[in-house]
Amino acid sequence: MFTGIVTDIGEVRTVAARADDLSRIEIACGFDAASIALGASISCSGICLTVVDLKTDGSRTMFAVDAGAETLRLTTAGQWRAGAKVNLERSLKVGDELGGHIVSGHIDGLAAVVSREDLKDQARFVLRAPKELSRFVAAKGSVTLDGVSLTVNDVSGAEFSVHIIPHTLAVTTFGAAKAGDMLNLEIDVMARYAARLLETK
Question: For the chain, what is the domain count?
Fold first, then answer.
């Protein structure tokens, strides 16, 4: 489990296809290597991935994850190449501050950036959710985009907007996000269960 509060921006170093429909992805980060165990879960741009290898390269920690065919097909991981930047968050520990909202790291689909408007003290993004997921997006509700917990400002059909403050622009990949980009979307787990309860009522 995660909170959607990004603590580092990692850089993809290598992507190696494997014969068993896996891609091994190596990511450089600023986390202390001694604090990461093999098998640990790390949110990589919102995708919960398992650490399968670990080493250091100078002052940088390098961890590797395996992404399966389904992950590569349904998320932006299939487009990652050397040099790509990814938002990173370590998994929650008991007693940690819950700064965002409960995030599972299980991506529901891809949201398209329709437009970006840079304002005086923030940036306004309009995004389009897949039609089948749009009903889960509500004004003042929460969404996770590329691993970042955000509050929805308004909704119009399948489109919704979020406002990104300067701090978030500076410490996440949203600083470089632009119209046409695809972002990993995870809907709020509460919205998912509320919809399921209504369906089965």
Answer: 2
